[in-house]
Design a protein that fits this description.
Length: about 170
């Protein structure tokens, strides 16, 4: 199936997609701030430029778009019908990079929380999800396993690490 847009239209459309300060990021940040948490955003010194960094809790949060990060079995993720091979390879590279970045951050002692846009997309599930997210951050020794609307685990507790605050100059 051919693209319904011209090459120029598609290029403009793709160029307009934001890489930071997206609506899902703003929703999460506003909620965490309203609950009294203070954080840094887009920290370039940490691998992967985490969207939200909470140094006090040694926690980073990545707010991922389901399409760009290949959220498996998500109703919002599907490959475009045109230029399929390009998109398949691009998404696979993004996913592989996410896995590498997460492993390195964990090795430096950071706890990683990944928030998918589909988990906060609807208002009905957003408030409950954000409450669990807050609890996961401030009570890291508690075991939290949230089931999303697609029945996939999204936030799982990990043991608190005693490693030092890591700086990473890979940005």
């Amino acid at each position: 199936m051919a693209d319904v847009m011209t090459t120029e239209q598609r290029s403009r459309c793709m160029a307009a997609i934001k890489g930071k300060d997206t609506n899902p990021e703003l929703i999460v940040r506003k909620y965490l701030f309203s609950r009294g948490l203070r954080f840094r955003v887009q920290v370039r010194k940490l691998l992967g430029n985490p969207d939200i960094v909470l140094p006090k809790y040694k926690t980073v949060i990545f707010v991922n778009g389901c399409f760009w990060h290949g959220h498996e079995d998500c109703r919002y993720f599907r490959l475009p019908k045109s230029n399929v091979e390009f998109w398949k390879e691009k998404i696979e590279r993004n996913v592989a990079r996410d896995v590498r970045n997460e492993a390195e951050l964990k090795a430096l002692g950071w706890r990683i929380i990944r928030v998918w846009e589909c988990e906060i997309k609807t208002v009905a599930q957003r408030e409950e999800y954000l409450k669990h997210l807050y609890d996961r951050i401030v009570n890291p020794t508690q075991s939290y396993l949230m089931e999303t609307d697609i029945d996939k685990p999204s936030i799982a507790a990990e043991p608190e690490s005693e490693q030092s605050y890591g700086n990473n100059n890979h940005s």
